[in-house]
Amino acid sequence: MLKGAENFAARHPRALTASVVSALSCFAVTAFGIAPMAPDAAELPKRTVVETLAPVDIEAQLDQLASHSIGLTRAEATRSSDTPDSLLRRAGAFDPAAAAFLRSEPLARRIFQGRAGRMVHVTADAAGLVQKIVVRFPAEKVEQQGSHFTRLSIERDGSRFTARTEAAPLQAQIALGSGSIRSSLFAATDDAKIPDSIASQMADMFSGDIDFHRELRKGDRFSVVYEMLTADGEPVTWDGGAGRLLAGEFTNNGRTYSAVYFKDSASGKASFYGFDGQSKRRAFLASPMEFSRITSGFAMRFHPIHKTWRQHNGVDYGAPTGTAVRSVGDGVVDTAGWQNGFGNVVHVRHSGDRTTVYAHLSKIDVKKGQRIEQGQRVGAVGATGWATGPHLHFEFRVGGRHMDPRAIARASEAITLPSYAKTQFLQTVASVKTQLAVAETMDGVSAAE
């Protein structure tokens, strides 16, 4: 039937058009017939208005369009083999003067210094002449690192170019991600395109629940909500580009743990808390480093230098030289210097006649008598003293007696949530629960909201 209608329309187009017009006319008449006329419509006054319209000046508009310069902006990542000419050419600009400026101006040369992959935004006109170049770098001032970035702007002014830098605040964007363990935590987060800094924070978040060195299982799952930093709306590529881990959920060996980052607005202190309000932070961290490989535990071992079986009174963490070492708890530095087989070593005295020891350091960042907080850097991994390779030797002593650091950390007292902050805390939990539910559906994916 439909095909017959199509054939009729093809053979009789004029008849079809007339029929449609007639039908529409009928509808119009019907509408007129049922629309009531105002009782005094015939008596309404009539007035004619005449207005003279000025003719549109087409020529003037064409002149304005012709004088307007259209700029096209393209973003290109720097390459290790780049020259100013090759970079501009990829961005669609053919400007020898701009290339010469990039070679000669000290600020402009920063574009090609350091590692490749830096995003360069080039604006050029229709003739391929550079009008503006914008590049973003990490903050130059130490106190602004992590919160600001440096914006380098190069602009054309006639036949000359100018370059200037300015500091601007980074913006945080909420990102979600999830994954499952097949071999290691970092391999799983890499697959999900979750930054390493977030993986380290996740290990910290659940360090009191899961021993990530020994208890991780194939098939374990995790979901995270975290901050992704942006500079002028562009994702930051340096230092992983991530801010703080806001919430996480980890299923280990069939048991699920949930936690949220919460900052007490009154005291300004922040920590990770379970959804039940119990703090994930204890008086002592489980590890003096964010994440590393245990090479020797608290047990008997064959000493690599003395070639005899001896009790190992601490835990050794294998890590590259220079890896940051942090204090596992609040305390006061008792020792900071050289000590025989320990090499560069730091002793920190804590409450309850407890002491922690950090040995074989390549660098010491604290002084004797200094009061330090949990998580504060005390030095860097090295191979000083009696060490066969770069690692940290870590000890925990109670009343002078050596104890297993991991057992002490798990048994240590928890930091409690103040009662006045519970209303604010519950609002935070309700918000992240929804985000984690969405993140859980993103298997092996990380994306910004």
UniProtKB/TrEMBL annotation:
UniProt keyword Zinc, yes or no: yes
Start and end residues of each M23ase beta-sheet core domain: 311-405
Alphabetical list of CDD domains matching this protein: M23_peptidase
Domain of life of the native organism: Bacteria
One MF annotation (Gene Ontology) recorded for this entry: hydrolase activity
Keyword line: Hydrolase, Metal-binding, Metalloprotease, Protease, Zinc
InterPro entries referenced in this protein's UniProt entry, alphabetically: Cell_wall_metabolism_enzyme, Dup_hybrid_motif, M23ase_b-sheet_dom
Region forming the signal peptide: none
Protein name listed in UniProt: Murein DD-endopeptidase MepM/ murein hydrolase activator NlpD
Cofactor dependence: Zn(2+)
Pfam families: Peptidase_M23 (PF01551)
UniProt cross-references to SUPFAM superfamilies, sorted A to Z: Duplicated hybrid motif (SSF51261)
